[in-house]
């Protein structure tokens, strides 16, 4: 009964109630849009990292890490991962694993005979890379062929900044000079198959990409730096990691397995930054909604002082009156959240339909999509947040009710 009375009380001053509902609905829609942008950014960044070459997990000899589980640059170390083909086959047999590919990291100098530039190289197995769903952004030319190259027909992809520094295009020949595993220098001619981008300008200025067989030929080694593992489903990564660790335990060589987050620490930094921004915006929205609705509820109580005094005089408890005010606040939260949810869905649909783009972030090359990803739990959380805010907003008018004196209330004008 109190709930029904509270709902009818909101219709006494419809203009004020509609204004309060508007504040709550706009606040709810704003939270949904912000949450949708943050969620899309997190998911997009996660997928870009995984599909950009890191995969879900990396398996590498523990000696390469030297006690630092976050180390990611192995370009200064020789590829010391032996018997990797056997281990790869065993890992690919595990449930949930899509594919496993070998990688080699190395560094050296590249030249076209006239210009010279230092580089960071990564060698992959193109066929497995495609099975893993890795995304290679080819700007000019073509991707590396899947077939293992024969001697004299080695191919290379150059980062667009590195290609510009060397002044080469697809079809040209560059020579790389690197140190072999025994410490001597080796030179190898490579045909430029294409120019690609990692999405980050600093990386594009130094990176080149070859086939694993090419790097092994240049380094004089049959080993690799690590094995990159791609899963069928990112959501099952924790269970897959436990299974993979059990497979690697007790192997012929000590191996470490690292997930993509430990190899991409900037992802955690981005999450922390966006989380702080979202919290700050939530506090602002909460304060504005609380102030606006606290004033509305307080005015509603002040206009009904004589009515409340009469109810107290005939035996209504102060707790019942406080519950009435509290229920009015909750009705505002519920109706405002529902209206805000509908408004949020409409705005999300419009924004996603327009396919807007934002300028590239610092150090990035490509613009980023302005898209929103909202899930049902976001609506529930936004509604719960508004309910808490309205409960807080109802505190001043409830305190006013408890301070009412029956005689003064009955004589209130």
What would you say this structure looks like, in words?
The structure is a single chain. The chain is α+β, with helices and mostly antiparallel strands. The protein has two domains: 2-49 and 267-410, no CATH class; 73-232, no CATH class. Helices cover 54% and strands 20% of the residues. It has helices spanning 2-10, 14-54, 62-65, 84-92, 126-131, 160-166, 201-204, 212-219, 237-248, 260-263, 265-303, 305-313, 318-354, 376-393, 395-403, 406-410; strands at 57-61, 97-111, 116-124, 137-141, 155-159, 173-179, 185-197, 207-211, 226-231, 255-259, 356-358, 368-370. A six-stranded mixed beta barrel has the order 2-3-8-5-7-6. Helix 2 (14-54) crosses helix 13 (318-354), helix 11 runs parallel beside helix 15 (395-403) and helix 13 (318-354) packs antiparallel against helix 14. The protein is elongated.
